[in-house]
Amino acid sequence: MATVEERAGSGGSGVSEEMLRGFFREMLLIRRFEEKVEERFRAGDLPGFLHVAIGQEATATGVCAALERSDVIASTHRAHGHAIAKGTPVDAIMAELYGKEEGCSGGFGGSMHLYDVEVGLLGANAVVAGGIPAVVGSALAFKLRGEERVAVAFFGDGATNTGTFHESLNLAQLWKVPAVFVLENNGWAESTPAVQHSPLPVDELGKRALAYGMKLIEVDGQDVELVYLAALAAREHALSGKGPVLLHLRTHRLAGHYIGDAQIYRDKEELKREWESKDPIALLRSRLELSDEEFDAIDVEVTAEVEASVERAKAGTDPAPEDALKWVYA
Amino acid sequence: MPEVTYREAVRDALARALREDESIFVMGEDIAEMGGSMGVTQGLLDEFGPERIRNTPISEMAIVGSGIGAAMQGMRPVVEIMYEDFLTLSMEQLVNQAAKHRTMSGGQLKVPLTIRTQGGAGWSPGAQHAQQLEAWFVHVPGLKVVFASTPEDVRGLLWSAIYDDNPVVFFEHRTLYPLKGDVPEELEPIPLGKARVHREGEDVTVVATGRLVHEALKAAEEADGEGISVEVVDPRTLLPLDEETILASVRKTTRCVTAHEAVTRGGFGSELAAIVQHGAFDWLDAPIERVGAKFAPLPFAPAMEQWVVPHAADVLEAIRRTVARA
Amino acid sequence: MAVEVKLPRLGQGMEAGTIVRWLKSEGDAVAKGEPLYELDTDKVTQEVEAEAEGVLLRIVVADGEVDVGTTVGVIGAEGEDVSSVTASGDGAAAPPPETREVEQETPETAADAPPEATAAAAPEGVPEPEAPAEAAPPVSGERVKASPLARRIARERGIDLASLTGTGPEGRIVADDVERAKAAPAPAAAPAPPTASAPAAPPPGEVEVVELTSVRKTIARRLTEAWDAPVFQLTVSADASQLAATRERMVELMREGDAKPTVSDVLTKLVASALMRHRAVNAHFVEGRIHRHPTANVGIAVATPNGLVVPVIREAERRSVQEIAAVRADLVSRARDGKLQLADLEDGTFTVSNLGMYGIEQFVAVLNPPQVAILAVGSIAERPRAVAGALVVAPTITMTVTCDHRAIDGSEGAEFLQTVQALVEAPALAL
Asked: Which residues of B are identified as catalytic?
């Protein structure tokens, strides 16, 4: 099966300017959210540990924009961007990070276990590749019941080495379930660069799909318009009954693996270059030719939204300790 | 009352459930044309077709995981894991995911998944095809664990497990598949969490599971001849456990023996002993005895296997120890 | 506006870090994002960047280990006054020991009586309040092997296990053995006293080594803990005539079946009243904070065969003396039988220890942590006093309060004790 690269010509009739502006706002919202989360963590407000998706806003926004509310996604430990993009209210996510009852998981999950079933977020997952099989199962259910819905799994390049990944792709393709496997390839599995974790060149990791006879779509994960168009194509293919799709998005993690990760394993010069040339927000900003005034207007708005969510979260309700037993059994 | 085998009883529960509810389907290795390595699903493919009786590749993680996904979407999948030894390959999905989604999501999700599996020694399968691992799962909050020992129990309990909204690990025992027993004409669901008293007695309570229920009954007969009156209780559901019935029995008899085929150390009998010790401390007239397999990977040669695994004689010895005098 | 540079939490589980060296000096200009100092966490040494722009006005902590949240420096506009900034964090870190000022207002009273009376039970401590486990422990001191059931039956029937022979394995006494025994104790042995725990007396001339029971071990541990608090003691004597009279009136007013009120019961009530007027004394000192309690749960020290226990009379300020007497009688009897529950021992806010019945005139009690004060009460005895220039003999009671100076100052302790004295001399004020 051949590799397919779907591209929209730059400046061509891809996506409307209005829609791109919508993407821009969302991506900036995600960025400001993640920056605020970093700040609050360093101030000692937030328990546990956190993984921010700075640099990976376009993959979250682009893919989720192509999905319907009734489609479902499973995310990773780096889930805030996916949650926002899929439609979980910012307030609910922030409250969850603060461990409050008003959180999207009721304070039971935290950053790596964000759930919002109403908008189709089936869970962030603290186990690498842990959420992928359930996506196969959800897609199977949609197919058996004749529902026009897709199930989407987000995961990183590190996950493509797990047994879970391989078993899941094999099974999904075998049963031709309506699933999309989104590989957000940032070239790092925590502190291990791809060259140390996979024998394939990092840019070719998507080819693993070919081993299962699965359709592969590859685009630059920092270009939100391309991501969006590719995700639309993937969704269509998955729903057509022709089988699932591996959507390979080459992206860049511009911050550490977790907050507090000093990234001593990373070349500082290279990181600086990535910031300068690969920031998806900066790229879209210059594409839209946003003036400083326009940018600031959006920035003020999204920053206020994030700050309000912090205030609301701080004023939220702490769960009673005994609530720990509440959901053990249905 | 019709008499059926344990195997037929399992099949009957599956078939009735499949007929009644479109959202139920079965997945596993070799379960379609072959009817399963233990023959449990024989005939089901003809009635229900390949979409609902699904053969899978050898991918325990993905099989259990896709069962989780389908369950999350409101279906009631029944996954067959060929040998309980292979549960180990699906542990991540079972323990980290299935058991925890409900709590981690703050109650938004349910995982009404049933995982059927089987194990049992006595036919020289070697160490990797005969383990009894139920104790591991009793330790995981969010799972339920069932281990039935008779045709009537296995049928009624499997039905309840399928319709339970939680992930249930449902253990069958290989050597019990041909065991015949009476079952009611119509399937009577048996609630999870209720023990069954197979035999009443006055002197000692034997709490046994799986194959050892039958070994315990044999030992009880013999003990009767020695003037020892033995009560045999089968918890049937290991998690949640019917502590009340067990404690009431021990308070009556003042002595307790636990019996299972699994290795004694760290086995379910240890949890039982702790519960009994705590709940019936002032009623105990003798230390609690645990009967189980000896602490070794199961050897192949029949004589060694026979020695490692417990039988009626071991239960009888334990019974005698509880009533012993100096 | 100056910004305090606080040590950031750089990772999950990070509680502190060590500043290795500053990369900027006081007076240097600092841009946002510029490396400011080098920090050693237990995982890695890394540069910490400035989060504000301006001039590094002050380095508050030059180097060394610092808790997360501690202010280590100040960035602001040139010329701003930041002399008031200290290293104290957001309460995330307790101030380092060297900066804590501890005053002993009064040197410890030369109390010859060792400060014995405290602290077996604390609100959070769990000393085992159990009596000796067997109802009839063996007179010989050897452990008897008996099944739990046999023990229970023996306990219920008052049968001495030591008098039985066990027919169970290894000579264990089983239920049957007890059931067959006569209900009355074996003719040869006198019944053992119910709470006897005395082992056989050692032969004369030998040193007797007494192992600590778990209750004693707890007492030892907690007293050692209490010893670390910087304490001071204040003593006052009061005319006890009204106190005694009040008590006699209460006894007259008793109904049949009521517990007989004692002077201690009256004192408990008076102390509770005083505590409500001096909240600072009705408090706990926990992890650097003072927890003032809204109600007075007064613990009374009770001697039992196993050691000291301090059961608590809750909300003593709301109860009448009669009610207090009833609660006290129940607690003391259960304490002596070893039947106190954990709930009886929890949540005490203040302790009263009374050695008056032993004729002790005055003593100093050891704090019952985390309570910030304890009152030691001596005997009521006729003693000479000077009243308006004349010598009189009056019943006098001497009380000493031991206070934790981390939570209470001398004046606060003195005011409290003054109130107690006033109430003792005129109990009607509080009843």
From this structure: 60, 129
Structure tokens at B275: 């519960």
Q: Express each pLDDT in A197-227 by its tens digit.
A: 999 999 999 999 999 999 999 999 999 999 9
Residue in A134, A151, A327 nearest the CB of B106 = A327
* pLDDT tens for each residue of A241-292: 999 999 999 999 988 888 888 888 888 888 888 888 999 999 999 999 999 9
Q: For position C346, what pLDDT does the model report?
A: 84
Give the SS3 label for residue C172: coil
Quick check: A106 pLDDT over 90? yes
At residue C107, φ and ψ (nearest 5 deg) are -65, 150
DSSP B92: I
Q: Total domain count for chain B? A: 2
Helix (H, G, I), strand (E, B), or coil: what is residue B292? strand
Q: How far apart are CA A117 and CA A115, in angstroms?
A: 6
* Predicted TM-score of the model (pTM): 0.68
B77, B114 in Cβ contact below 8 A?
A: yes
When pLDDT is cut at 50, 70 and 90, the band that residue C127 belongs to is very low
Residue in chain A closest to C46 (alpha carbons) equals A262
Give chain A positions within 8 Å (CB) of B169. none
Rounded to a whole number of angstroms, the distance between the first and last alpha carbons of chain B is 48
Q: B212 and B304: one domain?
A: yes
- Exposed/middle/buried for C31, CB within 10 Å: 0-12, 13-18, 19+? exposed
CA distance B147 to B132: 11
User: Could you report the predicted ipTM of this complex, rounded to two decimals?
Assistant: 0.90
Query: In this complex, which of B282, B284, B324 lies closest to C169 when CB atoms are compared?
Result: B324
**C38 bridge partner residues:** C21, C47
In the β-sheet with C373-387, what is the strand arrangement from edge to edge? C231-239, C390-404, C373-387, C350-354, C298-300, C312-313
| Residue A61 domain-assigned (yes or no) | yes
3-state DSSP call for residue B114? strand
C71-76: strand order across its sheet: C3-6, C71-76, C54-59, C29-30
Tens digit of each residue's pLDDT (9 = 90 or more) over A138-169: 999 999 999 999 999 999 999 999 999 999 99
Q: Indicate the number of domains in chain A.
A: 1
Task: Please check whether residue C283 is in contact with residue C229, taking contact to mean a CB–CB distance below 8 angstroms.
Answer: no
A268 lies in some domain: yes
Contacting residues of C for B324, CB less than 8 Å apart:
168-169
Give the integer Cα–Cα distance in Å for C50 and C135. Answer: 70
C3-99 carries CATH number 2.40.50.100: yes
The CATH number that applies at residue A219 is 3.40.50.970
Q: Are the C-beta atoms of residues A151 and B116 closer than 8 Å to each other?
A: no
On whether residue B36 sits in a domain, the answer given is: yes
- Angstrom distances, CA of residue A218 to CA of A229, C289, C343: 11, 59, 66
Q: Pick the closest to residue B256 from B248, C392, A49 (CA basis).
A: B248
Q: Which residue of A has its CA nearest to C12?
A: A49
Token duo for residue A207: 């080819």
Q: What is the C-alpha separation between A8 and A12, in angstroms, rounded?
A: 7
Identify whether residues B116 and B264 lie together within a single domain. no
Is the peptide bond between B151 and the residue preceding it cis, with omega within 30 degrees of 0? Answer: no
| Interatomic CA distance for residues C405 and C105, integer angstroms | 9
